[in-house]
TrEMBL record:
Keywords: Amino-acid biosynthesis, Aromatic amino acid biosynthesis, Transferase. InterPro entries: Aldolase_TIM (IPR013785), DAHP1/KDSA (IPR006218), DAHP_synth_1 (IPR006219). The gene is aroG1. The lineage of its organism: Bacteria, Pseudomonadati, Pseudomonadota, Betaproteobacteria, Burkholderiales. SUPFAM superfamilies: Aldolase. Residues 39-340 form the DAHP synthetase I/KDSA domain. One of its GO terms (cellular component) is cytoplasm. One of its GO terms (biological process) is amino acid biosynthetic process. Pathway: Metabolic intermediate biosynthesis; chorismate biosynthesis; chorismate from D-erythrose 4-phosphate and phosphoenolpyruvate: step 1/7. Its EC number is 2.5.1.54. Belongs to the class-I DAHP synthase family. This is Phospho-2-dehydro-3-deoxyheptonate aldolase. GO terms for molecular function: 3-deoxy-7-phosphoheptulonate synthase activity; identical protein binding.
Length: 361
């Protein structure tokens, strides 16, 4: 018997459809592609400071129920025109969750919420939901965690994130250099800003690395680099980093690397000390900086769902409450609208203040 040295820890192997096959099953129309392309251009303009509105990435911590996600998207579409002069709303449509230890890994990995891990179904549902968002005219945002799955859906994103746990990963940085959407790098969970600043510099460069083709073959791609990456302050081990002094420190770190001194601030995660009820207060303090005329804040992130709080995922799926998160706690819909109103007022006040002081708007 030959000595077995391969696949000692593989229990099962199953084929997935190729990205092209999945794209054919859930196609994107020209009208939907235009929604994505237009939203990306607006996000790009905001990131570069050519559009003085605030980018607001808002929505559930994770999607586990397509119906609730579509209801959320509809509500966002309904309120968006009220804020259009001040805010550009992009919905969090997050399918892949990086866990601190163990836990549900998101809709792509486990769409049936039962641990079976039907990735084919997960990819179909994820892509279907992104197409539906585009059909509704709602720009979508997601964290890109896996290195293979983006080929199945990333062309539908208007904004992407590399999370706190992967900002230091060279593989995620080079993957970011390939992505077509503008993208934020979270500061790592340690809170060390330089890691995310380095990531932005790396992602802007061209890289050559192995990937999977749309026909499902191994290939080498050469990227041109993604020039539309920015920093997201999400707090860290030492506590929050949304206050004016932290923003100033982040701006200095970016400028020292010859990058524009502009950041997005996450109101959740370590900035809320993982308590969703603190998000409105964090947003209010960010709003105060914007109202005082700061142009350093390009965007804000909120974890928000139809119903506030979070619930445990158990084997009894019938016990799940519709519209409530099964990962991080979220603010509810009414609180979300109030936060959006306050942020929009802050943007308008900041504009007036800069005009009064003859500063560039
Ligand atoms: O936003 C999501 C969570 O904060 C992240 O996935 C980590 O979650 P966990 O610490 O509950 O695993
Ligand atoms: C996982 C997330 O955040 P972070 O990477 O900051 O923990 C998230 O935004 O869903």
């Amino acid at each position: 018997m030959p000595t077995r040295i391969a696949d000692l820890h593989i229990a099962r192997e199953e084929l997935l459809p190729t990205p092209n096959e999945l794209r054919a099953e859930v196609p994107v129309s020209e009208a939907q592609a235009q929604v994505v392309a237009r939203a990306r251009q607006t996000v790009r303009d905001i990131v570069r400071g050519d559009d003085d509105r605030l980018l607001v990435v808002v929505g559930p911590c994770s999607i586990h129920d397509s119906a609730a996600a579509i209801e959320y998207a509809r509500r966002l579409r309904e309120v968006a025109p009220r804020f259009d002069d001040a805010l550009f709303l992009v919905m969090r449509v997050y399918f892949e969750k990086p866990r601190t230890r163990l836990g549900w890994k998101g809709m792509i990995y486990d769409p049936d919420l039962d641990g079976r891990g039907d990735l084919h179904k997960g990819l179909l549902k994820a892509r279907g939901l992104l197409v539906e968002c585009a059909r509704l005219g709602v720009p979508a945002a997601s964290e890109i965690l896996d290195l293979v799955t983006p080929q199945y859906y990333a062309e539908l994103l208007s904004w992407g994130a590399i999370g706190a746990r992967t900002t230091e990963s060279p593989l995620h940085r080079q993957m970011a250099s390939a992505l077509s959407a503008p993208l934020g790098f979270k500061n790592p969970t340690s809170g060390k800003l330089q890691t995310a600043v380095d990531a932005i510099v790396v992602a802007a460069q061209s890289h050559r690395f192995p990937s999977i083709s749309l026909d499902g073959r191994a290939m080498v791609i050469t990227t041109t680099g993604n020039a539309d990456c920015h920093l997201i302050l999400r707090g860290g081990d030492a506590g929050p980093n949304f206050d004016a002094a932290s923003v100033e420190a982040a701006v200095a770190a970016l400028q020292a690397a010859d990058l524009p001194g502009r950041v997005m601030i996450d109101c959740s995660h370590a900035n809320s000390r993982s308590d969703y009820r603190r998000q409105p207060q964090v947003a209010a303090e960010i709003g105060a900086q914007i109202a005082a005329g700061s142009r350093h804040i390009l965007g804000v992130m909120l974890e928000s769902h139809l119903v506030e709080g979070k619930q445990a995922l158990t084997a009894d799926l019938s016990a799940l409450q519709y519209g409530q998160s099964i990962t991080d706690g979220c603010i509810g819909w009414e609180a979300t609208v109030r936060v959006l109103e306050q942020l929009a007022d802050a943007v308008r006040s900041g504009r007036r203040r800069r005009i009064g002081q003859n500063q560039p708007t």
